[in-house]
Amino acid sequence: MARLAAFDMDGTLLMPDHRLGDQTLAALRRLHEREITLAFATGRHALEMQRVVQHIGLDAFLITGNGTRIHSIEGELLHRQDLSPQVVERVLHGRWETDASLHVFNDSGWLTDKPMPEALQAHLFSDFSYQITDLKRLPACDVAKISFVGDHDDLCRLQQQLDEQIGAQAHICFAAMDCLEVLPVGCNKGAALEVLSASLGLTLQECMAFGDAMNDREMLESVGYGMIMGNAMPQLRAALPHLPVIGHCRNQAVSHFLTHWLDTPHLPYSPE
After folding, report:
1. In the structure, what pLDDT confidence band is assigned to residue 267 with cuts at 50, 70 and 90?
2. 236-262 burial, b if ≥16 CB within 10 A, otherwise e?
3. Which among 69, 169, 263, 271 has most CB atoms closer than 10 A?
4. What class of enzyme is it (predicted)?
């Protein structure tokens, strides 16, 4: 029996329009009523997710920045990891052959150097936004992660460049088809969930997790009950072929699975 349930947000709990559906919210509330601990494990910023949990009225632990921060239900910082200043300097001042936009995340928020109003569509439900700043003059300390956003093929080529230059000094992974992230060494949602579960006196085998992208891989493969979304990146499904695949986020598949799990756990599950 799972005692802790961890959920990715974009492409998993959220529908394609980046809203949390009523059925999904009802299913999460049922878990809470069953005294199953909730955790949101996402690439989004802690400041944004604190707004979200306050708005939906659910007690949940927060794993944000793809594992760079863990916050308690009360908002206390439990764990943090930052990129080394050397890596930050190399990424921000390096010459990369890419058309992707550059984004930096630290405890003050989301920082970028050019307006990207289209990027705000994914944050309408939380009203979270970026700050325009000169990234070249940004201090290299206390940076949680750096993201590149652009065309997937372009990002694949960029990933090769980053691997060659800083691969041993950072964890580089796709958070979405159009988002490549540079994270601290050893930092991922799975490692963060292990820290959180241990602090709660639980093992990862007592955890359930849902995700759709390569930044969910470590989390999904380490828990006792890992679920892959039907809309997941092909690379994730290929990397974890033994895990069950549920339905699409547009159909609120997480709520469909949880309803089955809560009401008829003795019956086999089939996606909606």
Report:
1. confident
2. beeebeebebbbbbebbbbbbbbbbbe
3. 69
4. hydrolase
Phi-psi sector, 11: left (phi>0), alpha (psi -120 to 50), beta: left
At 153 the pLDDT is: 97
Give the N- to C-terminal CA distance of the chain in Å, as an integer.
Answer: 23
Dihedral sign from CA coordinates of 14, 19, 23, 27? positive
The span from the CA of 53 to the CA of 41, in Å, is 12
For the domain made up of 85-183, the CATH class stated in words is: alpha beta
- Write the pLDDT tens digit of every residue in 151-196: 999 999 999 999 999 989 999 999 999 999 999 999 999 999 999 9
Spell out the domain ranges in the chain: 4-80+187-264, 85-183
| Binding-site sequence positions | 8, 10, 212
pTM: 0.96
Structure-token pair, residue 261: 């799990």
* pLDDT score for 247: 94
- Beta sheet of 69-71, edge-to-edge order: 77-80, 69-71, 61-64, 37-41, 4-7, 207-211, 225-228
Q: Is 154 a catalytic residue?
A: no
Q: Residue ranges for the binding site for Mg(2+)?
A: 8, 10, 212
List the catalytic residue out of 8, 17, 22, 127.
Answer: 8
In the chain, % of residues over pLDDT 70:
100
How far apart (Å, rounded) are the C-alpha atoms in residues 38 and 30? 11
Q: What CATH class is the domain 4-80+187-264? A: alpha beta
- Looking up tokens 């001042």 gives 93
Q: Tell me, what's the pLDDT at 271? A: 78
